[in-house]
Structure formats: structure tokens, C-alpha cells
Design brief:
4 helices, 20% strand, 5-stranded mixed beta sheet, Trna Endonuclease, Chain: A, domain 1, 5 strands
């Protein structure tokens, strides 16, 4: 079939769930080590999810940082176009350790604190 793109949606969904699971473990570690206060995982098709947010990270200062998780670069351009102000992390299955994800999240938080933040207090 010429011109038809066949996509394995289940595989993409599994990769997305695996990526979010890794991010969740990294956030749990950051919470346990007192770098962040807590985090909220957006419910699928919930209000946060519909705004392009997978996690709402609450910092010790009471500020919140938004985070979108991507499992590949292929869906990134659509996210950037639709939600240009929402920080994202790409977690590809083959190359990301939890430690590396933690470092990336800390970098995203630090960058967000230098630019835009939302007060939760």
C-alpha cells in the first residue's frame, strides 16, 4: 500500500508508559532526598493532561514546575507547537537510566526557576 503509514499504537503507548514510569521513579527519588516537596501525575485525559502536562512538580519553595514526558523525538514538534511554554523531557527506552532522568529533571527545574514559575501558596 503506497502512501500509507502504519503505526504500532500499542508499542508507542507502551513506550510512553515506560517513559512515565521512569520519570515517576526519578521524581520519587528527588522527593525522598528532599529536592522537591511532592509531585502530581496527571490523570489520563484529565485537566492537566489536556493542557499537555504529565507531571506537576511542587518545589520546597511552594512553586510548581510543569513537565511533559515524551518517549521519542517524533512527537516533540507537535507538543512544542501546541504547548510552547511547557517544559519536556525525552525518555527513550534504550538510553535513559533513572540517575540521568533525575539530572535532566533537576536541570529543567533550575531553568524553570530562572524563567517562569507558578506560586502554589
Amino acid at each position: 500500500m503506497r502512501g500509507v503509514l502504519v503505526v504500532n499504537v500499542r508499542r508507542m503507548d507502551d513506550q510512553g508508559q515506560e517513559a512515565e514510569s521512569k520519570v515517576e521513579r526519578a521524581l520519587f527519588f528527588l522527593k525522598e532526598h528532599k529536592f522537591i516537596s511532592r509531585y502530581i501525575n496527571a490523570k489520563k485525559n484529565g485537566e492537566l493532561d489536556n493542557e499537555g502536562i504529565d507531571y506537576l512538580i511542587i518545589l520546597k519553595t511552594g512553586m510548581a514546575c510543569l513537565l511533559q514526558v515524551k518517549s521519542s523525538r517524533s512527537s516533540l514538534s507537535r507538543h512544542k507547537k501546541k504547548y510552547p511554554d511547557t517544559p519536556y523531557i525525552i525518555v527513550e527506552p534504550r538510553d535513559c537510566s533513572i540517575k540521568l532522568i533525575e539530572k535532566r529533571i533537576v536541570g529543567i527545574i533550575r531553568k524553570a526557576l530562572r524563567t517562569t514559575f507558578i506560586s502554589c501558596r
